[in-house]
Amino acid sequence: MSIKHGEPRSVREVVCARSEDEVAQVGTRACALGDSVRIVGRLKTVLSVESVVLEDEGSEVEVDVSLSNPCRFKQGRQYQFIGELEDRRNSLGGGGAADATPILVARIARDVTGLDMALYRAGLKAQERCLREIEERSSGGR
Prior knowledge:
single chain, about 140 residues, alpha/beta, CATH 2.40.50.140, five-stranded mixed barrel, 6 strands, about 25% helix
């Protein structure tokens, strides 16, 4: 079994994750359940010893930290998590299954307080642009 690297994603992209079938229909780079992702955000709430809520740009996602390295999570600090998206009922509220958002089951957690988020996002956009150009060149028969 190989461990997948976490694709850099925003909290908003993770919250909008779809099933693999829906992603195939839409044809975008949307997150799908089961994807290995890497997200960064501000710790909003510690729900329990095994669960926290991460917030970024107005979106929130619950993170199961039971598998990750032990960390004393502090509200208001920035954290980066790497893990897999699962379809489990979260603790953020919502009555029905339609309101359920995916949970990130983190295997890596680290405090990145002080990270320049504007520069981080700009770097991710530049990387995505570069990878897209490489993919276009290779599929163009060159």
